Amino acid sequence: MSAKVEMPKGAKIIAYFYIGIVVLAYVYHVQSVGVVDLGLPTTSPNTVGTYYNVIKVTDGDTIHIEMNGKDEKVRLIGINTPETVDPRRAVECFGKEASARMKEIAGGKIVRLEYDETQSLRDAYNRLLAYVYLEDGQMLNRKMIAEGYAYEYTYLEPYKYQYEFRQLQTLARTSERGLWSPNTCDGNKKLAQ
Fold first, then answer.
1. Which fold does the domain 52-180 belong to in CATH?
2. What does the pLDDT look like over 99-131, one tens digit per residue?
3. Does the annotation count 112 as an active-site position?
4. Is 83 a catalytic residue?
5. Are 151 and 79 in contact (CB under 8 A)?
6. pTM assigned to the model
């Protein structure tokens, strides 16, 4: 008689997660080669030279633009800022400052988008994923990390500017800028304000 061996609960969760990733990758692959049409975008539109009005700033890493007469949410690739609007979470340390900074530099401005072929065109919340540039050429993603309002964030796949963003984060941290300052969060966004 053999004893039944059970996987620990944590190992089961990890196994299910990886199975889910494999299934999603397979579904995306079969759509991209034309086996099925799920309506998922397989290419990124070319928007070089096209500018859009910023009509709202949600927080430090998400803005709204007017695109073809519609309100489109844009999530900035490669960055994350402390939470301020997620109803499931408390406002995180330096989140209000990050939101205020994004409103200051992007609110009411015109911007252009750069998509990244290594990333999906949209995320799970149907937000466009992009690098966002101001009219003067400054990239908002880069600026938010360099000034210490955001930290580098990789979701599943490495992205085009990952190395640069990580270097900028190191510089912001060693310079104790923004959320890295010992007078604010000291790099711990969970600290109460």
1. OB fold (Dihydrolipoamide Acetyltransferase, E2P) (2.40.50)
2. 999 999 999 999 999 999 999 999 999 999 999
3. no
4. yes
5. yes
6. 0.73
